[in-house]
Amino acid sequence: MACPVSALTFIYKYIAFKTRKSEYLKPENTTDFDKVIEIVRKEGLDYLVGIGLRISNARMDKC
Q1: Rounded to an integer, what is the distance from CA 55 to the centroid of its chain?
Q2: Sign of the alpha-carbon dihedral angle for 8, 14, 15, 17
Q3: How many domains does the chain have?
Q4: How far apart are CA 63 and CA 46, in angstroms?
Q5: Which DSSP letter does residue 20 get?
Q6: Relative orientation angle of helices 49-57 and 33-42, to the nearest 10 degrees
Q7: In the predicted model, what is the mean pLDDT of residues 1-29?
Q8: Does the pTM of the predicted model rise above 0.90?
Q9: Parent domain of 42
């Protein structure tokens, strides 16, 4: 699996694309998995929750 931080960055960009909200293009913290899950639920992108959980379980030292 790719580095979890770069994967989260990709998810933030995907959320920005789907919601058309530019604030997701430059998130303050790209390592907070709980925040990503909160955002996807708030934006109605629940299908991304499983991806976020898989990333959160990945080991950060693989970067």
Answers
A1: 9
A2: positive
A3: 1
A4: 26
A5: T
A6: 180
A7: 83
A8: no
A9: 4-62
